[in-house]
Design a protein that fits this description.
- The chain is α/β, with parallel strands linked by helices.
- Helices cover 32% and strands 23% of the residues.
- The strands form four sheets. A six-stranded parallel sheet has the order 9-10-11-12-13-14. A five-stranded antiparallel sheet has the order 5-15-16-17-18, with helices on one face. A four-stranded mixed sheet has the order 3-2-1-4, with no helix packed on it.
- A hairpin with a 2-residue loop joins strand 16 and strand 17.
- Helix 4 packs across helix 7 and helix 7 packs parallel to helix 8.
- The N and C termini lie close together (7 Å).
- The model has no long low-confidence stretch (mean pLDDT 95).
- It binds (4S)-2,6-dioxohexahydropyrimidine-4-carboxylic acid and zinc ion (ZN).
- Zinc ion binds next to loops.
């Protein structure tokens, strides 16, 4: 089956894309009948978002989210590949659970991968898993506790994991907050008057993130392993990473999230636990530093950190409510609305941040760019249409959001995964391929 997408705007021009057997076979001004022709009516075509930072949950936490709801949320948000974090129940810390996870993931409606988590005790298990399969997209290390994960604080062990990853040519993803500062700070805020999310960024303070990122950069320099520092949120870390990239030879990448870019302490005061997340949301000055770091390539990717919890859990008091909230359905509209419309980022630059660079960092072949030979993972958007965020309409099971009621400019119209339209105007579909 050949599908021709006509009149889509690509690289700023109206071009036709011909798709055959999952892949793009031609991009040109010409038309190629006889094919099924789909007129995109001058809407914008972007490469599908590759989201390296998703907590799908499933298995024992499928009440929070599962592969069906997460992948449908991805489709609605224009995301065509999702990568699942290992802090699940059971945790992905050995080959057996990895296989269990992959098995559950088969029903995903978007491309997927599952990371392997590192813990203080599973070095041999990780090594064994890497020996058994080449399909593990990356290793993940948490330097602090954050929703059911094990923390590694031993520098020698961190170095061992980095060298292991290097041997197998795998990227290591880091959650960069240092546990010792958080453990030290928590008792200082134990009085009930501090029982509000606005104190979250004082307990999980800037210092904890800064010191942790310093440690990661030290280890990066020593091992030259390929490292991706996740959800960077402070201007000091940005400066450290900028300096590292200027003076050291490559191999360190970093991510930020829409919430670290567009939310700040004023929002946390207002939205309480709905904006409780790790690392915490910081200040307007940090928002600005992150924007600058996107522009000068210090930040390489934007991930949603889609981290669904039940609304009942989020409605508990600050101390017992879990951190994280859904992001798959809001990320791309937030980026178009803010980066494109308000801050003059080009669509090319946004695509680099959400598609091309993620593919490069995990070495994902033939995805992340619209070009002949690549898989047809595409997102069609209307740049001008306004949407009001309504979490009750989310496909995610987590039907709340710190962006609830926010008016965004930029709507995801259709999402194509491997040459099949899977979502159109908010409805899940599959065009007949025969
Ligand atoms: O806020 C967060 N939630 N940060 C994390 O690192 C983990 C995530 C989760 O799994 O809920
Ligand atoms: Zn996360």
């Amino acid at each position: 089956m050949r599908i021709e997408l006509t009149n889509g705007i690509l690289f700023g021009f109206p071009l036709n894309i011909l798709i055959e057997n999952e892949r793009i076979v031609s991009i040109s001004r010409d038309s190629f009948p006889p094919t099924r022709t789909i007129d995109l009516q001058n809407k914008i075509i972007l490469p599908g978002m590759i989201d390296l930072h998703v907590h799908v949950r499933d298995l024992n936490n499928s009440n929070k989210e599962d592969w069906t709801s997460a992948s449908e949320a991805a489709l609605k948000g224009g995301v065509t590949s999702i990568f699942d974090m290992p802090n699940t129940n059971p945790a992905t810390v050995d080959y057996e659970t990895y296989k269990l996870k992959l098995n559950a993931a088969q029903i995903s409606k978007v491309n997927y991968g599952c990371y392997m988590g590192c813990s203080p005790t599973n070095y041999e298990e990780v090594k064994n898993a890497l020996l058994q399969t080449d399909s593990i997209p990356a290793l993940k290390i948490f330097l602090s506790a954050s929703s059911a994960n094990e923390v590694i604080e031993d520098e020698n062990l961190l170095e061992k994991f980095l060298l292991l990853a290097k041997e197998y040519n795998k990227t290591v993803l880091f959650h960069s907050e240092s546990q010792k500062f958080i453990t030290r700070n928590a008792p200082l805020y134990s009085d009930n008057k501090y029982n509000h999310s606005k104190y979250h960024s004082l307990i999980r303070n800037r210092e904890s993130a800064i010191e942790s990122t310093k440690l990661i950069l030290r280890l990066a320099r020593k091992t030259n392993a390929r490292i991706h520092i996740l959800h960077v949120g402070t201007m000091e870390e940005i400066q450290l990473i900028r300096e590292y990239k200027r003076t050291d030879a490559g191999n360190v990448y970093c991510e930020t999230t829409p919430h670290h870019l567009f939310l700040n302490d004023i929002d946390v005061e207002q939205f309480g636990n709905y904006a409780k997340v790790n690392p915490p949301i910081r200040s307007i000055d940090d928002n600005e530093a992150l924007l600058e770091a996107l522009a000068d390539n210090t930040i390489d990717t934007i991930g949603s950190d889609h981290a669904p919890h039940t609304i009942e859990e989020k409605q508990r008091d600050y101390r017992t409510a879990p951190s994280g909230f859904p992001g798959l359905e809001t990320s791309l509209p937030l980026l178009i609305s803010n980066l494109y419309h308000k801050h003059n980022f080009t669509l090319d630059k946004i695509s680099e941040l959400i598609s091309k660079n993620p593919a490069k960092i995990l070495d994902i072949k033939d995805r992340g760019e619209i070009k002949v030979g690549a898989y047809a993972d595409l997102t069609i958007i209307d740049l001008q249409e306004e949407v009001v965020v309504n979490p009750l309409e989310f496909s995610s099971k987590a039907k709340y959001s710190p962006y609830s009621g926010m008016k965004l400019k930029g709507k995801v119209l259709e999402t194509m995964v491997n040459g099949k339209f899977s979502q159109s105007k908010g409805k899940l579909i599959e065009y007949d391929q025969n």
